[in-house]
Specification:
Elements: E1 3-8, H1 13-23, E2 31-38, E3 41-48, H2 51-56, E4 66-72, E5 87-89, E6 92-100, H3 103-112, H4 122-136, H5 140-150, E7 153-161, E8 168-173, E9 178-182, E10 185-189, E11 201-204, E12 210-213, E13 217-221, E14 224-226, E15 231-232, H6 248-268, E16 282-287, H7 289-305, E17 309-314, H8 315-318, E18 329-335, H9 341-352, E19 356-361, H10 367-371, E20 374-377, H11 390-406, H12 412-430, H13 434-441, E21 446-451, H14 454-470, E22 473-478, E23 495-500, H15 506-517, E24 522-527, E25 538-541, H16 550-568
Parallel strand pairs: 16-17, 16-18, 18-19, 19-20, 21-22, 21-23, 23-24, 24-25
Antiparallel strand pairs: 1-4, 1-10, 2-3, 2-4, 5-6, 6-7, 7-8, 8-12, 9-10, 9-11, 11-15, 12-13, 13-14
Helix pairs in contact: 3-4, 6-11, 6-12, 6-16, 7-11, 7-14, 11-16, 12-16, 13-16, 14-16
Bound molecules: fructose -6-phosphate.
Fructose -6-phosphate (F6R) binds next to helix 7 and helix 14.
């Protein structure tokens, strides 16, 4: 996580750098800092908390044409001003995204060589180590080029040297870094959207390359100057702020009707534009968090209707597991950000085995999108709220379309539901009284979610949404599993949210709901079926649609219920505590 930016150009460096940094706040919001050149000096300002706190302490009229800045998601050391970036040691001032895994070892070496440390961070050690290397070799490019020999882990660095105040240096290893270009102005940033207010022209920096920006921008690969392609960002990722919505999460929930309709409409009559999966008899799906949950939905659709075995893996486990591949296996990587460290590491692991890979990604040009053999963009636009909603449903939409294609389903059976899907979702958003259900449960300490098969996958996501934004502890179980231990936790008034959309196994789940009701649970049922009056304290009715489309709409009420519970509890919905949007640490 963490976001870095840098700017060299005209005299409004502070304003431009901070504007770009604000676009990266989704990557972490524990502290923020800036280093800028003013009157031949490097000035460092940093504050605990949001970028807003830093802004309150900056003079935007101060003239500067070079700055680097950082927004932090704390890994080493608590969130305070001392641990905030930029760090400065000797000649070096830098900002860092990533983790230097061997920082303790390096720190010991530096202490022996006379260095002192004020923070608990790995970044200060990296800063000192570069200063140490620079004290032995005053060729800056050679020094920066050499750090991959010493640093284990990942980094994207923006670096200032106090003896060359007209330059920014930058480099990366496994953390994202781009250079933006607009005439005589240059930017560095963790992603392209950060700089789009100023330019859509950018260069992707590869691992270990060294960037030197002064009046021009020179990029070195293994000490040789390289000519890199200048890309133009072509996607519309307009972010018009929250509009009339109180939170980005609510805005993004409301964007779902259009996004889902757009994707279905784009591909349903042009399935040939999607990759041909006919030769694969096994698919593995890899992701983290909600992206893993969409994989589980994909598993139900492919196994249930396309006769294709699917195994889903949490990326942080898969990368250390013994993996088994059969002939004709496709591995699908799902990621909104396209930068999730564990998912990316799995992709690299799989590619070494020459297995076919497909990425389903939102962030255009991100590492996962670039490194997979094939990519399908979900085109959901920037997702600002940390809790995913529209990216999740867009990922399911793509998986559903792939399963429709693989199963040779007659698309005529889907057209009416697709034509109606905007209205179907809009009415789920607008016509249900979530506030009164939220009133009933928002004071509870524990909530349970149950379901079977695809409904269990939906329950997992509903539960995660609730946990991450309302901080209520919620657990999810396959409905038949409670009686094997967990039912002991159910007592008078415990809310149990059951998802029942699969008619074939409805009766089995109904029995499980009766079991918890008999022990005092309040039953909240999310269903597209009728005739379960005896198990309902509260019902959220979703329309019955084609089986491929059902999971896309069934999650909507659970997103909104979480939202209204969190709002009732006064939580910071768009930026929940401890979280960040792009998880670039392992
Ligand atoms: C939950 C959420 C996370 C992400 C996960 C993977 O609301 O957003 O669980 O789904 O961190 O992130 P990406 O999709 O960027 O790989």
């Amino acid at each position: 996580m963490c976001g870095i930016v840098g700017y060299r150009g005209h005299n409004d460096a502070i304003k431009k750098t901070i504007n770009c940094l604000e676009k990266l706040e989704y990557r972490g919001y524990d502290s923020a800092g800036i280093a800028y050149i003013s009157l031949n000096d490097i000035i460092i300002k940093k504050e605990k908390g949001r970028i807003k706190n830093l802004k309150d302490n900056l003079n935007f009229d101060e003239q500067s044409n070079i700055a680097i800045a950082h927004t932090r998601w704390a890994t080493h050391g608590e969130s305070n001003q001392i641990n905030a970036h930029p760090h400065n040691v000797g000649h070096i001032t830098l900002v860092h995204n990533g983790i230097i895994e061997n920082y303790l070892e390096l720190k010991e070496e530096l202490i022996v060589n006379g260095y002192d440390f004020v923070s608990e961070t790995d970044t200060e050690v990296a800063c000192a180590y570069i200063d140490y290397l620079y004290s032995k070799n005053n060729n800056k490019i050679e020094v920066i080029n050499s750090i991959s020999k010493y640093f284990k882990g990942s980094y994207a660095l923006g670096i200032l040297f106090d003896d060359e105040l007209d330059s920014i240096y930058a480099t990366r290893l496994d953390s994202p870094l781009i250079v933006g270009i607009k005439d005589d102005e240059y930017f560095i940033a963790s992603d392209v959207p950060a700089i789009l207010e100023y330019t859509d022209k950018y260069i992707l920096i590869d691992n270990k390359e060294v960037v030197h920006i002064n009046d021009s921008c020179t990029i070195y690969n293994n000490l040789n100057v390289v000519n890199k392609e200048i890309n133009t960002f072509e996607f519309n990722i307009e972010n018009n702020g929250k509009g009339n919505y109180e939170h980005y999460m609510l805005k993004e929930i409301n964007e779902q009707p259009n996004i889902i309709y757009y994707l279905l409409n784009k591909y349903i009559n042009n399935l040939e534009e999607l990759p041909d999966l006919s030769k694969y008899n096994r698919i593995d799906i890899i992701g983290c968090g909600s992206a893993y949950h969409t994989g589980l939905i994909g598993k139900s659709l492919f196994e249930g209707y396309a006769n294709t075995e699917v195994n889903c893996y949490v990326a942080s486990e898969y990368r250390y597991q013994t993996n088994f591949y059969t002939d004709n296996t496709l591995i699908i990587f799902i990621s909104q950000s396209g930068e999730t460290a564990d998912t990316l590491a799995c992709l690299r692991k799989v590619k070494e085995k020459n297995i076919d890979t497909l990425a389903i990604v939102n962030a255009v040009g991100s590492s996962i999108a670039r490194e997979a053999d094939n990519v399908i963009y979900i085109e959901a636009g920037p997702e600002i709220a940390v809790a995913t909603t529209k990216a999740y449903t867009a990922q399911i939409t793509i998986l559903a379309l792939l399963a429709i294609k693989k199963s040779n389903t007659n698309i005529d059976t889907l057209i009416t539901d697709i034509n109606n899907i905007k209205d179907t979702i809009s009415s789920l958003i607008n016509d249900i009284d979530y506030v009164s259900i939220a009133e009933e449960i928002y004071k509870r300490d524990d909530i349970f979610f149950i379901g079977r098969l695809i409904d269990y996958a939906i329950a997992l996501e509903g539960s995660l949404k609730l946990k991450e934004i309302s901080y209520i502890n919620s657990s999810t179980y396959p409905a038949g599993e409670l009686k094997h231990g967990t039912i002991s936790l159910i007592d008078e008034g415990t809310p149990v949210i059951s998802i029942i959309t699969d008619e074939n196994i409805k009766d089995k789940t109904v029995s499980n709901v009766k079991e918890v009701k008999a022990r005092g649970a309040i039953s909240i049922l999310v269903t597209n079926l009728d005739g379960m009056d005896d198990i309902i304290d509260n019902i959220i009715k979703v329309p019955k649609v084609n089986k491929f489309l059902q999971p896309i709409i069934t999650i909507i009420p659970l997103q909104l219920l979480s939202y209204f519970v969190a709002r009732k509890r006064g939580c910071d919905i768009d930026k929940p505590r401890n979280l960040a949007k792009s998880v670039t640490v392992e």
